[in-house]
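Customer ticket, subject: "Can you confirm the structure for [histone H4]-lysine(20) N-methyltransferase?"

Message body: Hello, I'm evaluating your service for our small team and ran a test protein. I'd like someone to confirm that this is what the system normally returns, since I don't have a reference to compare against.
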Amino acid sequence: MVKAKRGPRKKTQGRTPNRKVTDYYPVRRSSRKSKSELEVVILIDYIDGKGRGVIATKHFNRGEFVVEYHGDLIEITDAKKREAVYAQDPSTGCYMYYFQYLSKTYCVDATKETNRLGRLINHSKCGNCQTKLHDIDGVPHLILIASRDIKAGEELLYDYGDRSKASIEAHPWLKH
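Agent reply: Thanks for trying us out. I re-ran your input and got the following:
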């Protein structure tokens, strides 16, 4: 067995140099952006005759993800109880979206004020967005996608789908 000869160790400021894997392999830098660097693609604005609404600040192509309608995912029995509570205080509002998923009726209750803006998108029979269910690990997520190209500065709208006589009498804007 032959031993390799080593020369005298070089001291660097009282410590020995330490090699790292990154000395041999390139480091992949994260492309994540901080909150302050994120692009704002939608914002809240006041819409005459409607109150708050959401405006696109960038162009969206048809079929492109716009925003998630986010809130508590609950089953219909709990949703009906909450809806009855909300009906007692008209100043609360009601931002509940009912849908079928795997033969069951669910609701996304977005009534609670948050910084999520999907709940503030207004109604139009001829909206520029449409809802779509997206399954993530067996949990349904309600998203809005562009149903046509949307220009920056346009109000985001989708059809709530409620055509009941009682709803239209209570909310005449559902007719349009």
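A couple of notes from the result: The helical segments are 76-87, 165-170. The chain has a mean pLDDT of 79. Feel free to reply with more questions.
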